[in-house]
Write a structure and sequence with these properties.
It contains three helices and two strands. The chain is mainly α. It has a domain at 1-51. A two-stranded antiparallel ribbon has the order 1-2. It is elongated, with a radius of gyration of 21 Å.
Length: 99
């Protein structure tokens, strides 16, 4: 059995965990057990670990906010492709206000 460690995959998992930890921190969420882990089937792996229910709910709240903003931005992009009329300008203003 081959027990060699793919160090590049291990570093990639650690880097991915660090990126997620930074993003979560910016959103005010912390996963205390988050870390890069040994590769699984030769692929980088991130161990999310145990997380409190409070942290999971907060992460869910942040994801829902992001999803709403993303929908609004897609809607704005679709509107920006339309000819400019008074009604589309009003819709754009209202949509931007919601964001």
């Amino acid at each position: 059995m081959d027990y060699t460690i793919d160090h590049a995959a291990l570093r990639e998992g650690e880097h991915a965990a660090d990126e997620l930890a930074d993003a979560l921190k910016a959103a005010g969420v912390r996963f205390p057990s988050l870390r890069g882990d040994f590769p699984v089937a030769g692929r980088p792996f991130v161990h999310l670990g145990g997380v409190s229910a409070t942290a999971v709910r907060e992460l869910g709240r942040v994801v829902r906010i992001f999803a709403g903003v993303r929908r609004q931005l897609r809607h704005l992009a679709a509107l920006s492709d339309r000819p400019r009329t008074p009604s589309t300008r009003t819709i754009l203003r209202l949509a931007m206000h919601r964001i």
